[in-house]
Sequence to fold (70 residues):
Amino acid sequence: LVAIVAQMEDGSLIEVLSDKSWKATNQELKGWNRPDIDAAKWSNATEIGVLGAPNLPWSSSVNRDAIESL
Fold:
């Protein structure tokens, strides 16, 4: 779904990887960005392709070198 790699000022890397265990909803709910939100009724996110797979709509914007380093 998403792979975010942030390089900190000291050179260290922070990686955030999502998968189908992440929760999703089609509605913007008040407080959705708070850590104490009750997402029990939200659905799991849907995987529609493998990160870095060729011939997908987002393939041209994927940094393959970054994926290989994960």
